[in-house]
Amino acid sequence: MKIAVVGATGLVGGEILKVLAERNFPVSELIPVASERSVGKQVEFKGKPYTVVSFEDAIAAKPAVAIFSAGGSTSLELAPRFAEAGIFVVDNSSAWRMDPTKKLVVPEINADTLTADDKIIANPNCSTIQMVVPLKPLHDRYKIKRIVVSTYQSVTGTGKAAVDQLFAERKGDQDAKKVYPHPIDLNVLPHIDVFLDNGYTKEEMKMVNETKKIMGDDSIQVTATTVRIPTIGGHSESVNIEFENDFDLAEVVELLSNADGVIVQDDPKNYVYPMPLTAHGRDEVFVGRIRRDETQPNTLNMWIVADNLRKGAATNAVQIAEYLMKNKLVEAAEVVA
Ligand code: 2RA
Hints:
This protein is globular. It folds into two domains: 2-123 and 313-336, NAD(P)-binding Rossmann-like Domain (Rossmann fold); 127-308, Dihydrodipicolinate Reductase, domain 2 (2-Layer Sandwich). Strand 12, helix 9 and strand 13 form a beta-alpha-beta unit. The chain is an alpha/beta fold. 35% of the residues lie in helices and 22% in strands. It is an enzyme of class 1 (oxidoreductase).
């Protein structure tokens, strides 16, 4: 398949190239794309250099799929132009996620809703993806009433400049360029994305709204506090889930162990639990500290960790492209076009 990676020079773009290579995605032609200031730069794919091209050249090259990770405004402007040219867009930004005409897809949960007409497909927010992957099988079995989540998010979610800020501060560089309004090394910021009028951040409201859309159930109540911490390996989440029905803890562990894309790491006596350090570079979502909330009925606590650049972004997007290919939606669309 001819595939374009839009935003190929960014952190997520680089991870998309790695994931395509690792998963042996059948790439017949790779088209790395970025804004004017990066056109002509080189990126590496499977050990070979590729030259970054402009948006116009990418549309003219007619890839079957373009995976976008270039920010909301670029996506709002350019995704429709790619789509009009018959190219499937899998978009990592928040631009299209809550658009009722667009699907918000986590392949383990709702890829089967996709059709050849879904030319712009939204990839959910990283912290939402890693939460819903393990929660969906539990929702199907016990029906979730309410989720209380607090996140501990990696600086890689902000981008390269934030990783640079963290390491510059760690080296004692007082003039480190600031992406955050405060130091991030040796600190914790209860602030991800912009603050909204309701006192929550946009990241927190993404978790509320996207969870309902992906699960296809508006009755699920979600309340979130999203926090940036000085780590790079992945996002962690403390999640408290109240179910309509009671559960058996051993069955919960079994459901999670059998869930697609989930690995249970839960042996606290031997200090086994998910951590960003061990989730880093992995495609799965890791779950541990699975225990009953003893303060109220039908309620579970657990700890979820995933590499936000992988399952939270690149891997999920590549899995969507794989689904389009395996289910022949790409060819079907080309025939129609
Ligand atoms: C973050 N959720 O971690 C964002 C990235 N999309 O900041």
